[in-house]
Design a protein that fits this description.
341 residues; alpha/beta; five-stranded parallel beta sheet
C-alpha cells in the first residue's frame, strides 16, 4: 500500500536540493547580517515536529557560533501575556504552516520588545512569514499527510544551510552540499529489522544525544502518531537518571548513534541495555556492539547522520504502521494544522 506519508517522505532529497538552490541569496544576506551584528542570545519558538527540528538547530548554533539558545514556552506570551527581555535577541520561529496562535503571539511579543525575528516556515504567505524580519522558506511544497515528513527534513536541512552560511565553516558547507545525495541513499536503507522488532511492542525508548537528540524526539513522536506505540525520547545521558530502571526484555530501544564525542558513552549505554535483556536497535554507519541490531545508514558526518536516520526511519515507520493495523495518513485525533493557544 502506497500512502501519502510514504510518497511525501520519498521527495525529501529533491526538496532539499531545490531548497538549497532557491535559498542561496537569502542565506547570504542573513549570514552577513548575523556576522555584522551577532546576537547575544537566540530563542526558538515551535511546537511538535518543528520543535524537534529547533532542538537540532539549537545544537548547531551553540556548538558552531557559541550563541546560547533558549526554547521559548509559547504559553508565556499567548496565555500569561508576559514580556521577556529581547534586546540583542534573535527570535526564531519554526513552523510548517505559520498559523498557530501561540507561536504567533511569542514571535509578536519578541519583536515588540526589540528582537530580530527569523522564520523557518513552509507556507510563505502565512501570518508568521508576514510578521518576521527575515523568512527562510523550507520549500517542501504541499504536504497532505498529517504526519510531517519532508517538511521536517526540510527544516533540518535549512538549519544546516543556515549554520554553514552564518559560521562560514567549510565543513558545514560540504555537509549541506552532500545532503541531497545522502538522503536518496538513506531512503533505500534496509530498516526491516525495526518493523520485525516493534510490530508487537507496547512501548519503547528512543535515544539520541547531541545533534541526534532532536531526531530521537521526532522518531518517538512519529511512533506515537502513526504506530500507536508509546515511545519516549531521552538523551543517552538523561536516561540514566531514573528511566534506565525500566529497560529490559519488555522495553526495546532505538538508539541514534553518530561517530562523535558522544559515541563512547552511547556505546556504554547500548552494552548496559543489552545486559538487561533489552532488544536494542542502533542506527549507525559504523559497526555496533555484539548483540545489538544495526539499522544501516550511509557513511556521513555526525551532523548529517541524524538527518539520514530520520529519512530511513520514515520509510520503516510507514511499514510498521501498516503492519500494526494503522493508517499513517490519518492518525487518531490529529489534524494537519494544529492551532494551539
Amino acid at each position: 500500500m502506497t500512502t501519502r506519508m510514504f510518497a511525501e517522505a520519498a521527495q525529501s532529497s529533491a526538496v532539499v536540493a531545490h531548497q538549497q538552490a532557491a535559498n542561496h541569496d537569502v542565506l547570504a544576506r542573513l549570514a552577513d547580517d548575523l556576522r555584522t551584528m551577532p546576537p547575544h542570545v537566540a530563542m526558538t519558538a515551535a511546537r511538535g515536529s518543528s520543535d524537534h527540528a529547533a532542538t537540532y538547530l539549537k545544537h548547531l548554533i551553540e556548538t558552531r557560533v557559541g550563541v546560547l539558545v533558549a526554547s521559548a514556552a509559547p504559553s508565556v506570551a499567548s496565555i500569561y501575556r508576559a514580556d521577556v527581555m529581547a534586546e540583542t535577541l534573535l527570535a526564531i520561529g519554526v513552523s510548517q504552516s505559520g498559523k498557530s496562535p501561540d507561536l504567533l503571539a511569542t514571535m509578536e511579543r519578541a519583536k515588540h520588545m526589540g528582537a530580530r525575528t527569523l522564520a523557518l516556515v513552509n507556507t510563505i504567505d502565512s501570518p508568521l512569514a508576514e510578521m518576521v524580519d527575515t523568512v527562510l522558506p523550507l520549500h517542501a511544497g504541499a504536504e497532505t499527510s498529517v504526519a510531517a515528513t519532508k517538511s521536517f527534513i526540510a527544516t533540518l536541512a535549512a538549519s544546516l544551510s543556515l549554520m554553514a552560511a552564518w559560521s562560514g565553516a567549510a565543513d558545514l558547507a560540504d555537509d549541506a552540499a552532500a545532503l541531497p545525495d545522502l538522503l536518496a541513499q538513506a531512503w533505500t536503507s534496509d530498516w526491516s529489522p525495526l518493523v520485525e522488532a516493534l510490530q508487537h511492542a507496547r512501548g519503547l525508548y528512543v535515544i539520541g544525544r547531541g545533534p541526534g537528540f532532536g531526531a530521537a524526539q521526532e522518531l518517538a513522536l512519529k511512533l506515537k502518531e502513526t504506530c500507536g506505540l508509546h515511545a519516549e525520547a531521552f538523551s543517552a545521558a538523561e536516561v540514566r537518571h531514573g528511566p534506565m530502571a525500566l529497560i529490559g526484555p519488555d522495553l526495546p530501544l532505538i538508539v541514534l548513534r553518530q561517530q562523535d564525542e558522544s559515541a563512547a558513552a552511547t556505546d556504554d549505554l547500548i552494552v548496559d541495555a543489552l545486559a538487561s535483556g533489552a532488544t536494542v536497535l542502533v542506527a549507525s554507519d559504523h559497526d555496533v556492539a555484539p548483540g545489538a541490531i544495526r539499522l544501516p545508514l550511509p557513511r556521513a558526518t555526525p551532523l548529517v547522520a541524524p538527518i539520514l536516520a530520520v529519512q530511513a526511519f520514515y520509510r520503516a515507520a510507514n511499514r510498521l504502521s501498516l503492519a500494526r493495523g494503522f493508517d499513517p495518513d490519518t492518525p487518531p485525533l490529529l489534524r494537519k494544522v494544529t492551532e494551539t493557544v
